[in-house]
Write a structure and sequence with these properties.
Length: 126
């Protein structure tokens, strides 16, 4: 089992920045591809970003490319999501996830992730 705990969400004005953190425990963190997803009210949970086990590869949804940066620190068992130039449409609950069963460097589908955090709310005001 892997336990994931997100933090760093909050209320920010449009154009502002937030950094989300997700701390993992339970198993070897570096064995897992990590991802961030988000779910806005009344919508499906959608992919945001993924990072490979070593951190050497990343992949982003088109909607956040150039504004968000995913990174990880395997010594601290932590994955981050730096969010800049935030827009009201970025408002959602953000979830981190860990996927270990697939050998791909990055993972973009919900079913590819076995473990999920409880989520942290991000609200961007206009």
């Amino acid at each position: 089992q892997v336990q994931l705990v997100e933090s760093g969400g909050g209320l920010v004005q449009a154009g502002g920045s937030l950094r989300l953190s997700c701390v993992a425990s339970g198993r070897t963190f570096s064995n897992y591809v990590m991802g961030w997803f988000r779910q806005a009210s009344g919508k499906e949970r959608e992919f945001v970003a993924s990072i490979s086990r070593s951190g050497g590869r990343t992949y982003y949804a088109d909607s956040v490319k150039g504004r968000f940066t995913i990174s990880r620190d395997n010594d601290k068992n932590t994955v981050y999501l730096q969010m800049n130039s935030l827009k009201p449409e970025d408002t959602a609950v953000y979830y981190c996830a860990a996927g270990g069963a697939v050998l791909s460097a990055v993972l973009t589908q919900r079913y590819q992730y076995q473990y999920w955090g409880q989520g942290t709310q991000v609200t961007v005001s206009s």
